Structure formats: C-alpha cells, structure tokens
Amino acid sequence: MANSGVALLLVDVLDAFFAPGRPAYYPDSAHVLDPIKALLTRAREQDRLVVHAVERHRPGLADFEHKKIPVHCEIGDDQSPYVPGFQPVESPHEIEVPKRRYSAFFGTDLDLLLREQGVQTLVVGGVKTNVCVRASIQDAFACGYEIILAREATNSNRPHLAEASLEDIDRYFGSVVSVEQAWERL
C-alpha cells in the first residue's frame, strides 16, 4: 500500500495543453512543467499515491463539454498522450483516472479510490487553474479532502481568471502555497 494520508493529483498533463498547434495549447502552459515534475519526483520518492486525472472523450459521440470548447483529447487521438516524462510509471501507486468533465471527481471513482487508500490530503498541480483544476479542487473540498495547491504548478491561458481562481481556492477550498511548501507536504 502506498504511504497513505497524502496523494498527488495531477490534472491534464497532456499534449493537448502543452504541444503547439493543439486546440487547447497555450504558450504559458510550459511554465508549470518543472514545478509539476518536482512534485511528481517527490511523490514517487515518498511512495505516495499519484493520480493522473486526464481528459478522455469518446470519439464520434456527443459530449456536452464540446458545446463550449473545441473537440480535444478523444481516446486515441494525437492530443491524448502525456507530455513526455509525465506519464504514469508501472506501479500500483500510480494510476490514471480518465474524466469526461472538468472535475476529476465527477462521474469517476476517484473519491472511492482515495478513501480506500486512506488519503485525506491532496496536493494538486496541472492545467487549467480556472477550469479543470478549480473544478477538481471544488469537488475534492465537497468530498472532505484537505487541498494543497502549488501556485507555480498551475496556470491558465486566462491569467486574470487563474488569479481569481487562486484567490477563491485559497479563501474557500484549501491552501495555495509555494511549490516548495507543497513538496514538503509530500
């Protein structure tokens, strides 16, 4: 069993957001990769549960998300691969949770999985702060988890919305801390 109590939740570290030319790409996304890598390395060293929550839409089927944003991350497409070096390693302590909505909790078994592992605290990083990261954090809070968001390990193509989301997350849902402080929690 992974060292329980604290887990790392990484949200959408996929080519769709980080590879130029993809519909969800934005240039500033690259700034979160080093901080996320630091958290991932620490979680692996500490034998923590690592959850890779990633978009996985079904090709050719209606999807409500696509009414608001471009089609992206369909199973098997060229946007769905992980950013090189960020894919789950072969370990029972590192898993993928496919999601079809912004939140890693909505319509998935993530809450059940975390409870079974004794997780009470989630350290979070990923993209985009004001969409998938915030939705996941809000649902994690509603499920009763302590939330630690590493400020440098998240951003958005809408910086003003990312800043507003960071303020709301820190005020209402958890703690927004430096990547060093988050690293220490792992």
From TrEMBL:
Tell me where in this chain the Isochorismatase-like domain is found.
7-181
**CDD domains (alphabetical):** cysteine_hydrolases
InterPro entries, sorted: Isochorismatase-like_dom, Isochorismatase-like_hydrls, Isochorismatase-like_sf
Q: Which SUPFAM superfamilies match?
A: Isochorismatase-like hydrolases
One Pfam match, by short name? Isochorismatase
Q: Which GO terms describe its molecular function?
A: hydrolase activity
Taxonomy, superkingdom: Bacteria
Task: Print the keywords alphabetically.
Answer: Hydrolase
Matching Gene3D superfamilies: Isochorismatase-like
Entry protein name: Nicotinamidase-related amidase
